[in-house]
Amino acid sequence: MHKELRVAAYAVCVRDGRILLARWVSRKDGRLWTLPGGGMDHGEDPYDTVVREVEEETGYAAEPVALLGVDTLRETHPRRLGADVDFHGLRIVYEARVTGGELRHETGGSTDMAAWYPLEEVPALKRSGLVDLGLALWRERPARGRVTDVLGRPERPAAAGG
């Protein structure tokens, strides 16, 4: 089975009780609201990735102010030519603040819209699990930066030898 690793960085931008979201256009799930962010380019620092991706998807200049946590995701997907892929995603989540720019929608990318939503309206949105992950990390700020600490997922077994 083909193995694929994707490292990505995302921003949780909350201002005046509202969160900045981008609408992701997914082949599988249609349009889902998600955190602004995306895949790291080869040789790129995750900090620079989140700054670039927020600007590309929302029009805003953003400054990461805290590392909230890191999550991994592993799934099996069918590939275009029929074989399956063992997908492993590493998601780095930052808290960020908007420092400039103007809200605009991305054209020709993986998202088609950006918007601010009141935090209390987020549960009613058609959204990716990444939004819930980011908000849980932002609210709870776990010392270890682990999703298991905020979402109640079972702990992963420790690797042998430490």
Tell me what the structure shows.
The protein is an alpha+beta fold and 162 residues long. The chain has one domain (2-150): Nucleoside Triphosphate Pyrophosphohydrolase. 18% of the residues lie in helices and 46% in strands.
SSE arrangement:
Elements: E1 2-12, E2 14-15, E3 18-26, E4 30-34, E5 37-39, H1 46-58, E6 60-78, E7 84-101, E8 111-118, H2 129-140, H3 148-151
Parallel strand pairs: 1-7
Antiparallel strand pairs: 1-5, 2-3, 3-4, 3-8, 6-7
Trace the largest sheet across and list its strands.
Answer: 5-1-7-6
- Dominant shape: globular
SSE string: EEEEEHEEEHH
Give the fraction of residues assigned to helices: 10-25%
What is the CATH class name?
Alpha Beta
Describe this structure in a few short sentences.
By secondary structure, the chain is α+β, with helices and mostly antiparallel strands.
Give the key terms:
single chain, 162 residues, alpha+beta, Nucleoside Triphosphate Pyrophosphohydrolase, 4-stranded mixed beta sheet, 4-stranded antiparallel beta sheet, 18% helix, globular, disordered C terminus
